[in-house]
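Practice problem: predict the structure.
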Amino acid sequence: MRYPIGVQTFEEMINRKYVYVDKTDLVYDLAGRHICFLSRPRRFGKSLLISTLDAYFSGKKELFKGLKIDELEKEWTEYPVFRIDFAVGDYTKESELETILSDILEKWESKYGISCKTNSLGKRFDNILEEAEIKTKSKAVVLVDEYDKPMLDVLGTELEEKNRNILKGFYGAFKSADAHLRFVFLTGVTKFSQISVFSGFNQPKDISMDSRYDAICGITEDELYSYFADPIKELADKMRYTVDEMKNALKKQYDGYHFSEDLKTDIYNPFSILNAFDMLKIEDYWYESGTPTYLEKLMEGHKVNMQKLIGRSYERKYFIDYRADKEDSLAMLYQSGYLTIKGYDKEYNEYFLDFPNNEVRKGFVTLTANSFFGKTEEEPDNWVKNLDRMLKRRDLDGVRDAFTSFLASIPYEANKDERAKDFETHFSYTFYIINRLLGCYTTLIEKQNSKGRADIIIETDTDVFIFEFKLDTSASEALMQIEKQQYAVPYLDDKRSVHKIGVNISSESRTVDEWLVSE
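Answer:
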């Protein structure tokens, strides 16, 4: 089986016989619309979808032989297709966007024999679309991939407004040339608010949360088991899993995306799944392929409080629109794929958002830890892994020293971050992130009884470690809380050794002040 890793051209996939998950019935349905917009995370197959639409509207019937659309389409009309890919270009450079658009338009003007008589990019495009219909006797199809990249590249810079206005004027051609358009389709990561980019033309139909198109990008569970049964078996044999165990591991690592209130359709990350089968190894392929620049900027200066954003319910309006002129971490995290829909309350029309899977959880928690703790990427990872090793050796003195040195190394500047007005807030968020970080690498348990929940419980094959942290009190008080709240009760019949660790943190030294262990 040949995996189309890095292949984004439909024609190449078919001709070179790469494995292709047939979405052409959805393509056929989508092609019946007029002007549409689809938001999906990066590396989710948006460019392949654009390429498939290009082949379809270009009348390349032979490429679709045997696919679902072959039974649906009877006419195979060829239309003039105008395709724009904004993935190419460095839009942080002055005039880069204008240059790229002008070069594209010049090629089309040459093709249709048009003499350029205006400097307006929108008017030039309007003239091209009109002339294309005259010359071909068919209305035009416009396909725009990554329409938002020229804005995302320059968020927070002087070029942000300039690039937005250039695109606004360019897309204005769609309004004046509407009579000459058969179909317009735009893809991107973010849906910028209507007043910023799309106000120059008729609003595109946003199908991003239309349940009928949930599976148009990505791989459903049914598709995974149907198209990739042999690779699943091969990967299971390599990792010494049963097939069912392998399916469960893939689900935890790469599944979990939902793009509407229809939670029955689970979507797997296609980039990670294909890489896992190709490499015969489960890794964090999507996250390791790079963090978007705009998200890195968002994380700077502790602008994203994971504790307040994640695992909560929201009305749709709070995460589906993104205004280019203000920070909106919730919408950015959802639309970039770090959060997804995990639940829906029909009564209140609210969506519960959380991490889609283990790969994304680990990546985002690591990203947050690096930003909040002011450390390089490998430091939190190495610290947790060393902590895990010491716990498995029952080296609690080593664990104490690890916590002490790690906490002491975290920079803290009171009152400079509006969310850290005092050390108690800083302390609380520090241990929230540590808790999340530990959960990515160790067997972290979140057991809660009627009296509450311990700060951290870590289980190994031989031991259970129950941690309770206090601020400016005493380690003995922390141990008393473990006893009073009966955090160890669920392990009374457990054959493993239970270790209760009470820790007091000093706001003066900002690290471990006292550490007591009770067996």
